[in-house]
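Training component of the fellowship. As part of building independent skills, the fellow (R.M.) carried out the full modelling exercise for a liganded target. The chosen ligand was zinc ion. The inputs are recorded below so that the supervisory panel can assess the work.
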Amino acid sequence: MKVSFKELGLVNTRAMFAKAVKGGYAIPAFNFNNMEQLQAIIQAAAETKSPVILQVSKGARNYANQTLLRYMAQGAVEYAKELGWKKPQIVLHLDHGDSYELCKSCVDFGFSSVMIDASSLPYEENVKLTRKVVNYAHKYDVTVEAELGVLAGVEDEVSSAVSHYTKPEEVIDFVKKTKCDSLAISIGTSHGAYKFTPEQCTRDENGKLVPPPLAFNVLKAIEKKLPGFPIVLHGSSSVPQEYVDMCNKYGGKLPNAIGIPEEQLRKAAKSAVCKINIDSDSRLAMTAAVRRHLAENPGHFDPRQYLKPAREEMKKMYIHKIINVLGSNGKAR
Ligand SMILES: [Zn+2]
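Fellow's submitted model of the complex:
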């Protein structure tokens, strides 16, 4: 049975992105696949009055079950109201849809936004598949994110060893032909907690790895071609050293995990970039807190005992991103 996202109390990204591009901030897109992540995201968004995008990848949908996810998203809207957020602006978004059928299924299941990622296909095929998804989604007022260029790294089903920056000379033709609502670009961000090899980095005076800077010249060239058009950054976790250290201190093994420095994301958020995807940082916060709790309390076996501090750690991280990196606090009162 079909359901419209409007019946679930969700919103699409159209007005949200237009406001964000104009206002020089970005909307957080946080991935989730379980209740504690969802609670932490909604609490953080409600407390800061920030619009928020709940992202579900194909893998997360398989992990959690599509029916359960749909009611969780609907529950999230009601929960946000209960927390005192009168007009919650919450998007349910498919991250990295890889086929027309998957995107259609999500539209039919109450998603308010979908991504069709055909960026690994030849240009003309990317255009064709994206256009097909847009045609279907727009019938139901669901917004569509497309991608041009290839990111390096691993994210669920999507993986690529090398990145290819988006070609600015292609973006006008692509957006015109596909009628997509936003465009994910490749300017040097990368999926996962190992965004760069040590060989790709330099070292600062303390011997700490410093990743190569994002290609802001490519972003600028794209903005010039598509003034005011919403741009999306994937793979934008910062991989906070404190979480990596905490994981490693309590039995983990995450050598040389490295992310995108927050000052670079802050700079991007002020541009036409209006959606920034953060997944790995939540995974790291949760795992670090669970590892610490279990190491310090070897007798605990009630999951609530270790998931509660994990949820608090994620919430703290989400609030930090909203206020100090994206600047989306107070934008959804
Ligand atoms: Zn991605």
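The panel noted the following from the submitted structure. The first helix runs from residue 14 to 23. The chain has a mean pLDDT of 94.
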